[in-house]
Specification:
Layout: E1 2-9, H1 13-22, E2 30-35, H2 37-47, E3 53-57, E4 63-64, E5 67-68, E6 74-81, E7 85-93, H3 99-113, E8 123-128, H4 133-144, E9 150-154, E10 166-167, E11 172-173, E12 176-184, E13 188-194, E14 196-209, E15 212-216, E16 219-220, H5 221-231, E17 240-241, E18 251-254, E19 263-266, E20 268-271, E21 277-279, E22 288-294, H6 296-318, E23 324-330, H7 331-336, H8 341-352, E24 357-362, E25 365-368, E26 374-377, E27 380-386
Parallel strand pairs: 2-3, 8-9, 23-24
Antiparallel strand pairs: 1-6, 2-6, 3-10, 4-5, 4-24, 7-12, 8-12, 9-25, 10-11, 13-27, 14-15, 14-22, 15-16, 15-21, 17-20, 18-19, 18-22, 20-21, 23-27, 25-26
Helix pairs in contact: 3-4, 6-8
Length: 387
């Protein structure tokens, strides 16, 4: 397996096309790419019909070992070639049917394109429009069970306006799902985590519909959440968007054990007039929610720490040096510390020790916990180590 990273500016269309053509991108087994809306739109118009792509918009651009986007449009491309195995890619428009059923057929199609139908892949990596992540995972797991780790991220834009895009090499979607199934003899390691600490404050979900939380312990969810915030010296929130105000105080669900808790986070996005809370993840009645707390310095350092854990685990398990690193970093976390993106990039560079890497800033994160089940969460970070 050969893995390279390329960062190409898109302000000059002809230069962008020439740089794409002069690289090894069009000969790759798979290109994983991120950039802002202009970058992915330009990529799709130039690279259509050339190679397999797993490309998605990323909040305010993306990051790689080659740089951090600061107001200019770049596409950051991780190119995987000479794979000791095979990679199959398939896609669908999620607006054209039942999402779980579409995800089932899409992962089967990806396996067929890899000519490995009936064989379990080493890894499934997905990108998708935000909103139906649990349904997508349900469909993928209906085919593969929980034996195969599923990692990925939900597309993002700059201001939660629904302008996100996905590109598979053939089609440009606004509500798409792209699935890559990877069959490789070379090892792949993954790690899924958050940079938040559980408080002792918790309550049980007593009324919920999808991603709208109505009551906790029988009381209006908005009232309960505001009471929790005030315990920690935060002002009560008013109806409207609370996305930025809730970034340091998300809601967690324990997906580990009581002695070794691992929290899956849900990000409150809106407080409604009826005191219900809207979130970026689906909850179920009876689940226990814990108030989580994050610190700014932890969000800044977490990307490099997760990268280091994934790399060291890979080296210990396989006694080999990894070849590249793919990071998914929650867009909400990024926005909270965007003035220090250059520092975050330098810290990853230091831990990566020369490895090429790409970082996407997403509006939802998918990954696998130690219990073997892949899940969707918010304000999470994941690392995938190749080769």
């Amino acid at each position: 397996m050969q893995v390279t990273v390329t960062r190409i500016g898109v302000n000059e269309t002809q230069r962008f096309a020439d740089e794409l053509r002069s690289s090894n991108i069009y000969d790759a087994d798979l290109n994983i790419a991120f950039g802002d809306v202009d970058a992915i739109s330009s990529l799709a118009s130039i690279a259509k019909g050339k190679a397999n792509w797993l490309a998605s918009t990323s909040c305010l651009g993306a990051m790689s070992n080659l740089g951090t986007d600061m107001g200019e449009s770049y596409v950051h491309v991780m190119t995987i070639s000479e794979t000791q195995g095979v990679i199959g890619v398939a896609s669908c428009d999620m607006g054209k049917g039942n999402v779980s059923e579409l995800a089932e057929s899409t992962v089967v199609s990806a396996m067929q394109k890899a000519n490995r139908l009936g064989q379990m892949p080493s890894l499934v990596w997905i990108i998708q429009a935000p909103g139906q992540e649990e349904a997508v995972l349900s469909g993928v797991q209906a085919v593969l069970g929980n034996a195969v780790p599923v990692f990925g991220g939900s597309s993002a834009d700059n201001a939660i306006e629904g302008k996100w895009l996905q590109f598979d090499g053939t089609q440009l979607f606004s509500n798409g799902l792209i699935i890559a199934v990877m069959y490789t003899e070379e090892p792949i390691s993954c790690y899924f985590s958050s940079g938040y600490t559980a408080t002792s404050t918790e309550a049980t979900v007593t009324a919920v519909e999808g991603r709208v939380l109505y009551t906790l312990d029988g009381k209006p969810a908005g009232d309960v959440y505001n009471q929790w915030l005030q315990r920690f010296g935060q002002p009560a929130l008013k109806p409207g968007s609370i996305l930025s105000d809730s970034t340091y105080f998300p809601l967690g669900r324990n997906r580990g054990t009581r002695s070794d808790p691992i929290s899956l986070l849900s990000h409150p996005s809106r407080l409604n007039d009826d005191n219900s809370l809207e979130l970026f993840a689906t909850l179920k009645e009876g689940e226990v929610l814990t108030l989580m707390h994050g610190e700014r310095h932890n969000l800044i350092s977490r990307a490099a720490e997760v990268a280091e854990v994934a790399m060291r685990t890979h080296e210990l398990n396989y006694e080999t040096q990894p070849k590249a690193l793919l990071l998914v970093f929650c867009g909400g976390c990024m926005l909270a510390v965007k003035d220090q993106l250059a520092d975050i990039q330098r810290s990853i560079l230091n831990k990566a020790q020369g490895l090429p890497f790409v970082v996407a800033f997403t509006f939802g994160e998918q990954g696998c916990f130690p219990d073997g089940k892949s899940r969707h969460g918010n304000l999470m970070i994941s690392a995938t180590v190749f080769g």
